[in-house]
Amino acid sequence: MSPPLVVAFALAGRVDIDLTRESLGKGTDGRDVFLSDIWPTLAEVRDLMQSALKPEVYRTLYSDFASQNPKWNEIPSSTGDTYAFDAKSTYIQEPPFFDGFSVEPGPIAGLKGARALGIFGDSVTTDHISPAGSIKKSSPAGRFLVESGVAFEDFNSYGSRRGNDRVMTRGTFANVRIKNLMLAGVEGGDTLLQPEGTRLSIYDASVEYGRRGTPLVVIAGQDYGAGSSRDWAAKGTKLLGVKAVVAQSYERIHRSNLVGMGVLPLQFKEGTTAKTLGLDGSETYDVLGLGLSLKPQQDLMLRVTRKGGETLDVPVRCRIDTPIEIDYYQHGGILPYVLRQLLAKT
Q: Nearest 5 degrees, angle CA 249-CA 255-CA 259?
């Protein structure tokens, strides 16, 4: 809420108050004081702004910024048309979102032989998916920083290192409170590498699956991606090699962010869950019906092949909700889509 309203509630001493009818308290004269009595008028706000904003102050402070701030000039910097990334930096690296970029988009093809990177329950938030807090020394991101010569006391946080995909991808699904149901709800960012059933961190498993050429899916419950609209929750998912997320329902912005990164959001039909289907992560997954004729919110088929060979066809809804999102998905995300649009105009 606005700062004046915060002050008003503080004066009242409680938040369960209707400020349109109830008083904030009593004045020195014993009379009730209402919000309307203390709320500034537009004229008062304008007069205060005019008295505080003086052009001569800005001219004095910013007329010769370089000479007035010698410390600023001491910061080493490079010159040129493009930023010169430092390969040794643990804070900023060139992101890999355009690796393998081609002028023409690829086809929309079916997904075959995917493995589950994780099976999660309800209310998995963007902080579960991409934490912003402290980095554990034993986590994949922590091990990476140690190997990069960073002392534990200098780890800082995921939020401070969001310019480095090497850290943020390793931090995806690494929240110490996330529960992967493939491990009977054990907390922490681990999974079971299939078909061996070996326990690994989600990041390490994704690397091995990538080496094998195995696409990945994430299975989830209700309100997947709730919380703040954290962009790395979708970026990290993409960089782990996840091609599709299948959930009971999505938080609006995270669903959009997944499409924007070229990750396919699918939704179970009402009453269908990982539990009702008996999924344990040993299965392989195919998505049938994907093609260039894909339409927004089209029904598709998720084929589940169990460890023993039994197959189960599960109807799901494609949660690409608009025609422009179809374009984003075909292009592999909004970034390559925009770049191709710019190239087409040159």
A: 135
DSSP state letter for 14: -
| DSSP string covering 132-157 | -SB--TTSHHHHHHHHTT--GGG--B
Please count the other Cβ atoms lying within 10 Å of the Cβ belonging to residue 294.
Answer: 16
In 23-86, DSSP assigns E strands to: 25-26, 32-33
Amino acid at 251: E
User: Whole-angstrom Cα distance, residue 306 to residue 165?
Assistant: 34
Which pair of structure tokens corresponds to residue 211?
């080496």
Report the predicted TM-score, pTM, of the whole model to 2 decimal places: 0.81
Domains of the chain in start order, with CATH, are 3-65 (no CATH), 112-130+172-345 (3.20.19.10)
Best CA proximity match to 121, nearest among 317, 273, 286: 273
Q: Is the dihedral of CA 286, 288, 291, 293 positive or negative?
A: negative
Bin 30: left if φ > 0, else alpha if -120 < ψ < 50, else beta.
left
Contact 178, 188 (CB under 8 A): yes
CA dist., res. 251 & res. 64, Å (int): 48
- The DSSP bridge partners found for residue 314 are 302
pLDDT tens digits for range 144-195: 999 999 999 999 999 999 999 999 999 999 999 999 999 987 899 999 999 9
